[in-house]
Amino acid sequence: MRRRTTVAVGIVLVLGVAGCSSSDNSSEPQPPVSTPPISTTPPAQTNTAVPVWAKVLRQPVDGQHLVTRQRKYVVTRASDEAGTTTIADKSSRKVIVRHVPAKGFVAQSPVVIDDRWALIEDIRSEGSDPEIRVVRYDLSTGRAGGIGKLPRVSEPEIGAYDGTFAYSSTDAKNRSCLIVASLDTLSSRTVGCVAAPGYLADPVVSSDSVTFSEITAPETTGRCKRVLTASLSGGPARPVPAATKCIQWSGASVGGATIWSEVAASDPDQYQSKAYLRESADAPTRALGAVATDTILACGNWILWETRTVGSGGEESFQINRWTAGLTKPQRIYTGKPGIALTPMTCQDNTVYVEAADLSASPTYTEAISATAG
C-alpha cells in the first residue's frame, strides 16, 4: 500500500474514505486512447446574484446522506460501515440500484452519474491486500458491469463533472498516469504520467478542464507537490505557477482561470490552506486568504471553496465563497451558524450540493442543500 501524506478536512460528515491506494502496480498494456471526452452540459450564462439555497434532504446524522442529485436520479449513501449506496428515480422514488460493497470494502465518493450510467467505487484499505473496485451500473436496467477497456483505477480519488471523470492509473511502465474518461462511451485519454514512486492525485474536473496534483519523491525530504491543469479538449497539462514551491495541494480551473491551495506537509494545521487565484496562464497571482483544505470545486462558470472561522469561544463556523471571471473579489454565498459543519461540495447539472450538519441540535441532523451555480 502506498504510504502518503493526506489532509482530512475538519468536517465530521465524510461520505467516503480517502487517502489509500492499491499496492498492485502491475497492469496490462492499454489499447490506444480514443477521442478525449468533453462534458456535454455547457455552463449557463454567469449570473452574479447571490443564489438562494434550497433544502433537498433532512436526515439524522446516522441516516441517509445525499451524495448527489442528477436530472433523473437521486444518489444517497447510508451511514452503515460499508456505505451502502442507493440510486433512486427522482420522480417516482423507485430504487434503481442498491449497491452494497463486498465484505471488507467501503464505498468511496463521488458517484459519477449521467442520464444512463452510474460509476461507484469501493476500496479496501485495511490489511495486507488493499484493493480498489469500480462498478458501472446501467440505470435503464439496474445491472452492474465493468468499465470495459479503460485503464484500471489505482488511486481512490475520482474527479467528476456530470458524465466526465478523471482518475489515476498505473501503466505497464509502473508510472502513475492521469486518465480522463467518458462515463457513457468509456472513451478516454491519458493527460500525463509520472514515474514511480511519484504519483498523480486530487483530480478536479470542470466543464472544460481537469486540474490535479503531482507528487514526486514522496516520504522523503525532497517531497514536492504541485498543481497542473489541462483542457478536456486535448493537449498536455501545464503547471500552475506556485506562490511557494512544492506545497501546492489541490485546485480547480475553468475558462482559463485556476484557484488552488497551498499547505506544507509539515504544517501543524493542515485543515486550512492558503488559497490563490490566477485569472489566466500569464496573469499575476492573487492571494484569496484561507481555505478549508481539499474543498475547491468548479461548477458552471464558477470556482467555489469553503472557509472555516473560529469564534472567541472556540466555536467553529463554515462559509462558502465563489469567484468567476469579471469579479474583483470573491463572493460569499453561504454563511453557516456556529456549530453547523459542512461536507465538501459536489456539482451536478450546474447545481452545487452540500450537507450542513447541526451537531448542537438534539437529536443531531444533517440537511442537504443546493444552489444553482448561475
Descriptive overview:
The structure is a single chain. This protein is mainly beta and 374 residues long. Helices cover 0% and strands 48% of the residues. It has no helices and 29 strands. The protein has strands at 54-60, 65-69, 73-77, 85-89, 95-99, 106-113, 117-124, 131-138, 143-145, 159-161, 164-170, 175-182, 188-195, 199-205, 209-216, 224-231, 238-239, 248-254, 257-262, 272-278, 286-292, 297-299, 302-310, 316-323, 331-335, 340-342, 346-348, 351-358, 365-372. Strands 1, 26, 27, 28 and 29 form a five-stranded antiparallel beta sheet that branches. It has a four-stranded antiparallel beta sheet with strand order 2-3-4-5, with no helix packed on it. Strands 6-7-8-9 form a four-stranded antiparallel beta sheet, with no helix packed on it. A hairpin with a 3-residue loop joins strand 2 (65-69) and strand 3. Mean pLDDT is 88; it is low at 1-44.
Give a nutshell description of this structure:
The protein is mainly beta and 374 residues long. It has strands at 54-60, 65-69, 73-77, 85-89, 95-99, 106-113, 117-124, 131-138, 143-145, 159-161, 164-170, 175-182, 188-195, 199-205, 209-216, 224-231, 238-239, 248-254, 257-262, 272-278, 286-292, 297-299, 302-310, 316-323, 331-335, 340-342, 346-348, 351-358, 365-372.
Topology record:
Layout: E1 54-60, E2 65-69, E3 73-77, E4 85-89, E5 95-99, E6 106-113, E7 117-124, E8 131-138, E9 143-145, E10 159-161, E11 164-170, E12 175-182, E13 188-195, E14 199-205, E15 209-216, E16 224-231, E17 238-239, E18 248-254, E19 257-262, E20 272-278, E21 286-292, E22 297-299, E23 302-310, E24 316-323, E25 331-335, E26 340-342, E27 346-348, E28 351-358, E29 365-372
Antiparallel strand pairs: 1-29, 2-3, 3-4, 4-5, 6-7, 7-8, 8-9, 10-11, 11-12, 12-13, 14-15, 15-16, 16-17, 18-19, 19-20, 20-21, 22-23, 23-24, 24-25, 26-28, 27-28, 28-29
